[in-house]
Each structure stands twice: as C-alpha cells, then as structure tokens.
Structure prediction request, 346 residues.
Amino acid sequence: MEDKYRSKLSPTTDFWAGIYLVVIALLSILGNALVLISFARRHSQLKAPELLTVNLAITDMGMAISMYPLSIASAFNHAWMGGDAACLYYGLMGMIFSITSIMTISLMGVVRYLVTGSPPKRGVTFHRQSVFIVITVIWLYAGLWALLPLLGWGSYGPEPFGLACSIDWASYGESLNNSTFIMSLSILCTFLPCLVIVFTYFGIAWKLHRAYQSIQNQDFQYGNIEKRITLMAVLISVGFITAWTPYVAVSFWSMFHSQQQDRMAPLVSLLPCLFAKSSTTYNPFLYFIFRPTSRNNLLHPHSFCFCCPSSPVEEPKNEIKMTNSSERVDSISHTAALHGQNHSEY
Prediction:
C-alpha cells in the first residue's frame, strides 16, 4: 500500500471517526428520505420552488449513500481502501454533490428573493418547467467541474490525514495547471455562490420588513410569518456556510503552505472534513420544523401508503388564523400574495 493512503491518525481516532460517520450517514439518509417521501405524497401539489428542496434532499442523500460507506470502511480499516481508482471515484462524487448542493442553495436564495414581493408589487411567479431546466443546468455544471481533473485540468488526491480524497489542494503553486484550476474552482463554485446566498437572504429580510411595515391592520399576525420565513432562510445559509468554512480554511492553508504541509497535525485536517459532512443532516430537520403540516402527514397512520391519498391533517390553529388574517388584508395590499407564495415553498 502506498504511504499516501495510510492513515496518519491513531487507530482509536480512526475508530471514533468511523462511528461519527456512521451516525451522520444514518441521520442524513433517514432525514432526507423522509423529506422525499413527504414530497412524493403530495407531488401533484408541489410548487415550483419546492423542487429545489427536493433536489437538495437528493443531493444530500446521494452524498451519504455514495461516499460515506467508503469513508467508514477506510476509517475502521485504518487505511484508505481501493487505491487510486477509489480515490478518483470519491473525489468525483464529492465534487458533483458539493457543487450541486451549494449551487442549489444559492439558487433557492435567488428564487425566494424573486418570489418575495415588495409591496405594493407582487413577486415573480415560477413554473415547474423553468425550475426543472435550472436544476438540470446545475447538475451539468457540477458534472463538468468534476470531470475537468480527469481531463487534465487539476487533479484529485488524498486528504492529509489519509482517509478521504478530494481536490489536491496542496498542488497549488506546483504548476500553472493546478493553480488556475483551484483558483477558478474557488471563485466560481465557492465564493460567488456564498455571496449570492448572503445578499439574497439579506434582501429577503429587507423585503419582508418593508411588507410588515406596510400593513396597518394590527390584527394581522404578519410579524410571526416574517420571523419564521426569515429564520429558516438564515438557518439554511448559516448552517451550510458554517459547516464548510473550516474545511475551506484548512484547504486554503494547504494551498499557500504546501511546503509546510507536514507541520499540520493530521487531526487538524480531519476535524473540518468531518464537520463538513454534517451539512447533509441539517436541512431535513429545518424542513420539518418550519413545515409542521408535512411533519404531521408523516405521522399519519397511512403516511407510507402511496396507493391511497391520506386524509388531510388539521393545520395548527395559529397557522389558520394567519391565513384568515391574510385574506382580510388582501383588499388593502398584495402582501397576502407575498405570504402565500413564500410560505408554500417551504
């Protein structure tokens, strides 16, 4: 076995890393499977923006199924399993799913910003076909970046701790080929999507704040709606960025200090990688927390029966009150339409 594929960690550390990945894999697969089941049970009523949430669940579950088992087996084996072929496969899958995930989340921010109206104007209406086309473009975009190292621009390689593979960040500076690839990848697939996420969610918060101020009826509980939608948007963006920031920071340190790579403790490079993998578990919990109707439908006795439609679950009283209130205000402004479009897509 090549030395680069031997674990640089202690057997005890490898064991607990494997246990951690088992837990993350189970939570990710179960949580995202429940989200997909929830969507499948009401597929005919899905709004166009909700297809992005479906795509995100598919991406997170795909990463857990295609990548985590190999990491778990390597951790318990105390060495990377599969050699170069498995390393290329792991790096390829990681690129496809990670780029698809961040591009989907950034697009969710753009769509939410556009569907959120700014009183007295209504937001933009999206159709399923348009969203399907955009999702297809995202997958093609991610697939192109993943294939480029196989075509000669950039390269894949083992992580410093020896139990995973990704872009060979340490090769930055060794050649113009690797340097231009890593810099282009960082700008187009990391920094720009993150900027889009931040600015669109700030824009959503500002639009909702203006909508709340435009309502004069004190009985209309739009303040609660504003807090719910804004909080979910913030948690999605903050959760993803927080999970991946340590990994990006360590990767960039490796880029600019490739000659000092041996000075970094293997555990320092391991922990950000493990933390980044936890990003696949956040979104299902957020979805069910902020969409109690879907959570209650899953708890229905016939929730897993796809042949027969289940009886509707009674909405919480406070949500019914919000809906009735929005109908009363509809004659005053278009804010009720803003509520309906944004609340339905979650």
The radius of gyration is 22 Å. Residues 306-346 have pLDDT under 50 and may be disordered. The chain has twelve helices and two strands. The CA atoms of residues 117 and 123 lie 4 Å apart.
